[in-house]
């Protein structure tokens, strides 16, 4: 009897232990289910739809000047400060930049020195020319004198030869046929002819010397070049003086918007344009940069809609479309704006739409994932698990046929209208993950 | 009568053993018993220590299994860095484990209740009412008991399929409810009650149901309880029946959960094994006194 009681008491304790164990397991069941459910990512899904893929290109652009005028200035001046920035609107006479006055003083001094140097060179040339002229006049006088002397002497010699001939002729007439006298007459005739020839030759040489001296000197441009240089330097100096009088302030020659500045403080004025100012006389243009995908749906001559900041929408036509030279793979579109509309720097939006085909299987582009060259979507599927029917993530490869910002048409190989495509998840999911559907 | 014979046999055996081992001394005897005890206990110790090891420590010990497998694994019965992470994971973040745990509890309890309702009256009938052909029928029962599951699996499958019970818990419960082993064990318990008691009760005007309830059940409880304990241990660990008849994992019992765990989760597997062991230990401790009795009944001959 005692043993029986002891047995039941022991059995009771064991049963209570077993019961407590089962209660503990029941609590753990609840806790583990709660933790499991809490840890499961919640996903929201969508199904493929039949849609028209309309391509709407919406992109931001900016108004640019219709034309630009360059502002040039004296090359080599050092800039102290630049008073304007790209996009600033300036009126005629507004300060553009301030020159370095100390550098300007140095430049003026340098120019003056250059003028002095060139002037000295000019004076030297002029003095040399005067000396040469004097020498030439003296030589001419001497040549003329030589000519006269030679002429007189040679004429005397000719006279004497004629006289000898006349005498020999007289003697022959007087003597008759005398052979010696004939030879003497012959010799006198030759002597007269030689004297005349020598006289002519001497006079010709003397005359040529006079002519040679009278010939003008070689023409040189050196003097003229120096004079031109001086003139140019004086002109620059005058401009420097003007700048000096204006305290080194450079002003806008006309009104407009600064579109480009090619100098900076501390630099020197180049021989090209210092800056570009828009031309207010020409209408502005609206410039948009399109990427490769957007370009497919915009063509030259297309009607588009432009909405500038703070203005109402307006219809326009694409006037210019070409590949960008600055950004590879992108395209620039220019649209002429009506006169008086927009100002350079004002932003706006271009909208262009193109109706597309109807596709039977369209999804949001956000649900399409890409890895390497492969496109795929996550699809929610169901399977039998230990916890019963459970949802899991499956990966389905797709091929995108066409798409716009809102919809992507895909080849409906692995998907049908009842497929549940995962749109979003509370945690990152991958293929095979168990999830909950919201 | 039969019990008396067995007890005499036991008494003589013990006397013989005492005569053999007494001269060797108690110390030697203790040592002789201790060595096999340690060998038996070692897998359980490995199970417990493994459940308290973290992944890194376990992978260090079990790496040879995952690598070339040419060396023996090393093991520390006392973990170097004990961790309850596996217990935390299995108890608080794995509802799958509990689904199967409660499936096991449900299956075992319904089978045992069914066996109590069906098997016990059947055993009472065989033991108390000696009608013509009852011995032959009982012999067929014993033969059926001896048939392993693999032999009857196909026919059971066809029958269950015809009854549209496949992939339901009834496919496991119903064949087990009508199992012959609890009938056989309970039969032994009821047969040990002297017939004279039933005669006396009848003469006193007790109905057959009253005799069953007031005499049969209290006096044959050792057979019943041993049948229940052995039945619990058998059905708690059953593998073949659910594997053959249950397709949905959500219907599986806990015994099928362990093969689902990969070797990479070895610590988790050790931990699940320990928790699986606990109900069986409770039931064993509860019914260990009757287990011996049940085994005796199962060894009795007519």
Shape of chain B: globular
Helix content of chain A: 40-55%
Sheet of most strands of chain A? 7 strands, antiparallel
Strand content of chain B: under 5%
**Would you identify the regions of chain B where 5 or more consecutive residues have pLDDT less than 50?**
none
Broad structural category of chain B = mainly alpha
Q: Would you report the number of β strands of chain A?
A: 24
Q: How would you characterize the largest beta sheet of chain B?
A: none
Stretches with pLDDT under 50, minimum 5 residues of chain A: none
Rg of chain A, nearest Å: 55 Å
Number of helices of chain B: 14
**Topology of chain A as a string of helices (H) and strands (E):** HEEEEEEEHHHEEEEHEEEEEEEEEEEEE
Number of strands of chain B: 0
What structural category do the secondary elements of chain A indicate?
A: alpha+beta
- Distance N terminus to C terminus of chain A? 64 Å
Helix content class of chain B: over 70%
Note down, in words, how this protein is organized:
With 438 residues, chain A is α+β, with helices and mostly antiparallel strands. Chain A has 5 helices and 24 strands. Chain A has helices spanning 2-39, 101-175, 179-214, 222-245, 292-295, and strands spanning 42-46, 49-52, 55-64, 68-71, 79-82, 89-90, 95-99, 249-251, 256-261, 275-278, 285-290, 303-308, 314-317, 320-323, 331-336, 347-354, 358-363, 368-371, 374-385, 388-398, 400-403, 408-410, 420-425, 434-437. In chain A, the strands form 5 sheets. A 7-stranded antiparallel sheet of chain A has the order 13-12-16-3-11-15-14. The longest helix of chain A has 75 residues, at 101-175. The mean pLDDT of chain A is 86. With 302 residues, chain B is mainly α. Helix content of chain B is 74%, strand content 0%. Chain B contains 14 helices and no strands. In chain B, helix 5 packs parallel to helix 8 and helix 12 (221-236) packs antiparallel against helix 14 (266-299).
